[in-house]
Amino acid sequence: MFSALLGAVWLLAMVVVSGALFPGYDHSAQFISEPGATGASDGFEVSWYGFLPVGILVIAFAFFAWAVGPRTVLSALGFTA
Questions:
Q1: pLDDT digits over 28-59, tens only?
Q2: How many CB atoms lie within 10 A of CB 4?
Q3: Which of 25, 38, 46, 69 is the least buried, fewest Cβ under 10 Å from its Cβ?
Q4: Are 47 and 41 in contact (CB under 8 A)?
């Protein structure tokens, strides 16, 4: 549960901060991946310090949820898909 909450907070903070630092970025009209795009001014930092931790936290949540959930084929497929 902690990894899911931390992942959501990290994603929200990353979107707000990276969007504010990206010149001409409009949160309501552009994709959240644009600040992390190749060639963007802070693309490397947004990708490595923003999107990568979110991905790791989502994977951790899926693993822990699978570990305490029912051991069925459908639940294993659901957590890995």
A1: 777 767 777 777 777 788 888 888 999 999 88
A2: 15
A3: 38
A4: no
